[in-house]
Amino acid sequence: MNSTVAAVSSNGVYSFTKPTRDSITLLAGLGVEGDVHAGVTVKHRSRVAQDPTQPNLRQVHLIHQELFDELREAGFEVAPGDLGENVTTEGIDLLALPVGTLLHLGGEAVVEVTGLRNPCAQIDAFQDGLLKQVVGRADDGTVVRKAGIMGVVRAGGAVRPGDRITAVLPAEPHRPLERV
Predict the structure, then answer these.
(1) Among candidate residues 67, 41, 54, 53, the one with its CA nearest the CA of residue 119
(2) Could you point out which of 41, 122, 140, 151 has its C-alpha 20 to 30 Å from the C-alpha of 28?
(3) Residue 124 backbone zone (phi > 0: left; psi -120 to 50: alpha; other: beta)
């Protein structure tokens, strides 16, 4: 199956959701141009409160469109940008990628996968009960996070809906994604 960009979103102010755009521009080492979470150091409020000098491993948030289909079946209406992601993907199992995977988006942009998004209670403020749908437990008791992945921009460029996504896995041994 071909992997593609289904939608792109950004927001210059702190807000849970991000409006969809015709395109976004990724800036190497920074994130999405004009997005509130762009920067070399952490921008998420909870991370800034802990240590504002931490490197920003959450420059770009990606979610798979297939999650929205799953949520719809559970009675929730979620569209691209609603959960604050910058890139909505289709046809790629984001959650199965190892740390360090390079995602080539369109002709120029490259995002290095750093880890899993760790959704917070704000998600229930958006739609009550949604947090339990995107964070659960496996049969062995481990936490399962389904609200997308995070990455840093290694090469900048424009990203648009319909752009092809190519994943380049890092050298083995692969490290599974953990929350960042």
Answers:
(1) 67
(2) 122
(3) alpha
